[in-house]
Amino acid sequence: MCRCLGIRRSAYYHWLRYPKSESERKNEQIADLIKEIHHLHPDMGYRRIRDELAVNYEMPFNDKRILRICRKIGIQSSIKWRPKSCTKAERNPVYIAKNYLHREFHADRPNEKWLTDVTEFKYYTGLEVHKIYLSAILDLCDRRIVAFKISSRNDNALVMDTFDEAVFSEPDAHPFFIRIEDFNIQAQRFATV
């Protein structure tokens, strides 16, 4: 049997005498404690379970070991925390822009509705990362770009320069000028001079 399976006879006899290693037996004990903790606190992830083992059971272990055991027995936190980021939605916004379009992204004639947004692009010079910003105004009638500007800074001047160029290229236009920001449609009526 050992010859067919490619196993040394000494390894087989060692397995007969010691079927589980010391670390495997210890991991099974830890797994039983983890199941008990998870039953009492299903919201705990592996880090908090490790802290619980260290503080209340006086069994300090590496968090990677606890994570490995949790994955093996299929235990994970029932609560997923939202990632922290630098941009958050306002809970009580002071000003909510009126939705003039009502999701009607079609125009019957040119220069009736303009849409604008700023897009960030990255490029590399060797290992150094640089950013440029493209501000463009799109006519919703024929999907043509009325005006665009490129800048190394994303500021109000970029948007206003793009708008000024659009007004200069289409002096007779009096469109709805719509800015898309974070997928919320905000509209403001502009009267060109």
Give the topology, please.
Elements: H1 2-5, H2 9-17, H3 22-40, H4 46-56, H5 63-73, E1 113-125, E2 128-139, E3 145-151, H6 156-169, E4 176-181, E5 184-189
Parallel strand pairs: 1-4
Antiparallel strand pairs: 1-2, 2-3, 4-5
Helix pairs in contact: 3-5, 4-5
What does this structure look like?
35% of the residues lie in helices and 23% in strands. It has two domains: 2-73, no CATH class; 113-189. The chain is built from six helices and five strands; from the N terminus they run αααααβββαββ. Mean pLDDT is 82; it is low at 182-193. β1 (113-125) and β2 form a beta hairpin. The longest helix is centred in the first third of the chain and has 19 residues, at 22-40. The chain has 193 residues and is of the alpha+beta class. It has a five-stranded mixed beta sheet with strand order 3-2-1-4-5.
Supply the key terms.
193 residues; alpha+beta; 5 strands; 23% strand; disordered C terminus; RNaseH-like_sf; Integrase_cat-core; HTH-like_dom; IS3 family transposase
